[in-house]
Amino acid sequence: MNPNQLRAGLTQAEALARLQSDGPNQLPSHGGRGLMDIVKEVLREPMFQLLLAAGLIYLVLGDVGEALMLVCFVQISIWITVIQQRRAENALAALREMASPKALVIRDGQQQLIDSRALVRGDLLVLVEGDRIAADARLITAHNLSVDESLLTGESVAVSKHANGSEQEQHVASGTMVVTGHGLAQVVATGSATEMGKIGRSLVELQSEPTRLHAQTKRLVRIFGSIGVSLSLIAVLIIGWSQGEWLQGLLSGITLAMSVLPEEFAVVLTVFMAMGAWRISQHRVLTRRSATIETLGAATVLCTDKTGTLTENRMAVAALWTQDGYWEEHANDAAGSVKALIEVAALASKPEAVDPMERAILGLAREQFGVPEHRGAGWTFEHEYPLSSSLLAVSHVWRTASGDWQVATKGAPEAVLDLCHLDSVLTEEIRGAVNKLAGQGMRVLAVATARSVSKPTAIDQHGLNLEFLGLLALADPLRPEVPTAVAQCHQAGIRVVMITGDYPSTALAIARQAGITKAHQTTDVLLTGEELGALSDEQLQQRVATVKVYARIRPEQKLRIVQALKACGETVAMTGDGVNDAPALKAAHIGIAMGGRGTDVARESASLVLLQDDFASIVRAIAQGRRIYANLKKALVYIVAIHIPIAGLAVLPLAFGAPMLFFPAHIAFLELIIDPTSCFVFESEEADQDLMRQPPRPPDETLFSGVSLLSSLFAGVGLMLSLGVLYVVLHRLSVPPDALRATSFLALVIGGIVITLSSLAGASWSGLMQALSNKAFWFLSTITLVMLALVFAVDVIRELFQFAPISLQMLGWALACNLAATVFILLTKLFSRFYRF
H/E/C letters for each residue in 132-143? Predict the structure, then answer.
């Protein structure tokens, strides 16, 4: 590739041709589940295996009609489950598409941000500090470039890279991280051909640990399964020994097992997590780990940075201050010292600025003061003394058109003042100016310079012999929605804490505008990085209870703050965007990375990624997380409640020595109702009106806490008792078995609708009103009643179900039964509301 082609990169046509020949730049992966994978998974479920076993027994008994009906139910159940699972898979596929990493390349002479999967051999890859390298590449240019190769080598120390060094120094590998500096590299291998691709197959086999929700539901399924197996064996033995009908006893045992087994748990959990992540993504928040949805509702502290999250990240230079001059935004005239200040500040900014502050500085220098790009022709950038955690300042070394050398420095006022070695009087004067500007909510930088006839040879910035020029103040307005979002957090019992590298006065001013702290609060709510460094871990744990603003904080200090908050029992959400934020993001219960300005390493360490970097998105995600968890809890409570009367009616005839009331076909019909109800109806339920006015739930709260479990038990037991009374009365009246079965089944199906409404409503009148507005509830209820009507209206189906024709008397018995159950449920809800058992 000749120099002109090298600067221009590949053309789009060349890139497309290579993409077609080499394939996408991605590692081997399982990807999503296909249609047949879901069908096979469904067929492995115990419920479907029981149905198939029942169908085989009916064939052996010669009852072809019952067998065919069960096969039909199996197919319908499979497709309902497949549709639900495919809905979840489609949601996950959409999230994977949104989560696909990006790569900055040069094509057709222009910088373009592309999907990393579209990267091809020969592409010019722009390397920026904090980004993960998307393919194996060879360096063309490099400025102070070091790369973290620990993912491949296990070495935690970053490795220096040089464009003119050895082959190893020129090579950068896919999956490694740019720690410092920037550069340009040409892609030499993509996808499976990269060093990372060679170990990709082993990475594919790694399995993630089950979440806490999965563990809880798995334990519940085991408990119910054990009960179901025990009852089944008892039924088989009783009927087999007492009546000598072992096949009928086996059918009864299968019916009992089906009635007790809550196989919907696994489906509900899968659908809720996938759809929950998709719903959160609609608020421009990407969920990288489904376990985060469990934790969102428990967050007690939200630690947020300032720039770009609370503010608009739309920096503009608002003021320039020197000892003999002052300039404010939109002013026309400025002293010579002020122009010199902005000229040096522009030289201290990167030539291709990405940072909003540097872009604002360069824009002002060019447009307001007529300073040419980096002083025009003849000026060459030679060296950079980069920003570090120990010194918050950056210096650029330039060779001028006349052949001498100039150093341009900008950074935190205290850092630059330390580099300039000023006397105490002048230092105090400058600090007073800094406080005044910062107190107006502006971010303040100090600027300094040095000129020499020979190239500076200082090892670090302390040896540059700098001359202080002045202060540069930048304004970043607060996002208009932030105060409302902060107030919502406070209502929800979530303490908002700002952590920023800005000057204390600036941080306090923004915190007051956002409502994080009050105007009269100053000392107890503020802690600086210097003060934090002087505290022991125990002392810091005492301070975090009151501190709401952390200023002049270095990225590595965020980890100490998170650990201190966790030690105090808080559930911590933490935002971050830089490489050094990664440990804190990983340590927090909910790590939140900035998708717009954040680095790849921050995004990979986080559990949530903001696709739009603003604070209100976080609050909306927390609200969605609470809604998802609350609805999931309601759905699981409903599943337990509805299985109680089903199991009760399956067991009750055994106590009277009577034949089984229900058969596998009846349970299969009920499953056709329960499965979509537990997924669609409860998943689509709107959030309770006061959900964000409730305190965070305890992090160790189980899905079936005392109140919710008792609520489900009372609802299920209430219907079971009513159905039991109905069965006993009809049995004593010597009602024929087919009429008894039809009346009980009719009452059970209608009662299922009552339990659905009860589970949706909770224990409040407003909850009932909200449940009644659930469109999915009315849709599924209507479908249920239509299916029930068809069962009784179509003679063939009715005879297969062994039902007598419906009569007004039967309908009256069923409605009376449900009226009694409804009264019982209402009384228990009132009792639970007033006595809070």
Answer: ECCCEEEEEEEE
